[in-house]
Amino acid sequence: MSRNAKINSLLLLVVAALAVLPLVLGLGDHKEEPFAGADAEAEAAITEIAPDYEPWFSPLYEPASGEIESALFALQAALGAGVLAYYFGVHRGRKQGEARAEAKALRSGAASGSAASGDA
Question: Where would I find the H helices in the chain?
Answer without folding.
Answer: 3-24, 38-49, 66-119
